[in-house]
Amino acid sequence: MELQATCDGLVLCEFCGVNSESAKDESSVLRVVLVGPPASGKGSQAKVLADELGLFHLSTGSAIRDHMARGTELGERCREYMSQARLVPDEVAMEVVDDEVGEHGGGGFVLDGFPRTLHQAELLDQWMRERGQELDAVIVLDVMQADLEARVARRVLCGGCGQPLRLGGRVNSMNDACPDCGGELVRRTDDDVNVFRGRFQEYLDMTVPVIDHYAEIGKLRRVDGSRLPDDVSRSILDLLKPDTQEK
Ligand SMILES: [Zn+2]
């Protein structure tokens, strides 16, 4: 879809009518990709970044789930792949990005979960070229595998109220009860160390080539993701903000 420029230079979304004021000055629009291994905190960092800088946050995973829940044609196609335990093809993932970012990303965006493969990165680069745009930065959260495994091992959920908890935080062992509702603690299958290792290997095989690609073209920025979430957020914002202020 197209953004329509109004006579006073504001850019109006044709569908939702939202003003993307920042879109009037193309040079101030930030387009960022956040990359990181599973359990690196990439999703929460993307959210902070979007809130702080007024960017549209697209998590392709949630966008796909949302399309499936709404029963859109795109969602139905994704459901077919997923019901056969197949990955959504790169082209289809790109369609999701095109749809969502095309509609809401006029004032800048942060992508989380895309591109996951080198081919997806090439599709994204081409899509942006066609629109006369380019990414400002691809930020990778560096966390050692051992640190990630330790994080995963500490993650538990309350089986009663469903809240995420951390061993060594408000609870100390699986035998403790939820401090809020007294419910029993459970683990998500995702938080099994073997499931994690499979996903980490997938990251090394499929996503590290994406990182190499953006390093080659000078777009890559590395952030130490092993620190406290607030410190990680600050580093990411420091990387991006001087840029926006200069322009
Ligand atoms: Zn609970």
From TrEMBL:
InterPro entries: Adenyl_kin_sub (IPR006259), Adenylat/UMP-CMP_kin (IPR000850), Adenylat_kinase_CS (IPR033690), P-loop_NTPase (IPR027417). Its main location: cytoplasm. Gene3D superfamilies: P-loop containing nucleotide triphosphate hydrolases. GO terms for molecular function: AMP kinase activity; ATP binding. It is found in: Cytoplasm. Its EC number is 2.7.4.3. CDD domains: ADK. Keywords: ATP-binding, Cytoplasm, Kinase, Nucleotide biosynthesis, Nucleotide-binding, Transferase. GO terms for biological process: AMP salvage. It comes from the Bacteria. Residues 154-191 are annotated as: LID. AMP binds at residues 60, 65, 86-88, 113-116, 120, 188, 199. It catalyses: AMP + ATP = 2 ADP. ATP binds at residues 39-44, 155, 227. GO terms for cellular component: cytoplasm. Pathway: Purine metabolism; AMP biosynthesis via salvage pathway; AMP from ADP: step 1/1. Pfam families: ADK. It is an enzyme of class 2 (transferase). Belongs to the adenylate kinase family. Monomer. Consists of three domains, a large central CORE domain and two small peripheral domains, NMPbind and LID, which undergo movements during catalysis. The LID domain closes over the site of phosphoryl transfer upon ATP binding. Assembling and dissambling the active center during each catalytic cycle provides an effective means to prevent ATP hydrolysis. PANTHER family: NUCLEOTIDE KINASE. NCBIfam families: adk (TIGR01351), PRK14527.1 (NF011100). Catalyzes the reversible transfer of the terminal phosphate group between ATP and AMP. Plays an important role in cellular energy homeostasis and in adenine nucleotide metabolism. This is Adenylate kinase. It comes from Sulfuriroseicoccus oceanibius.
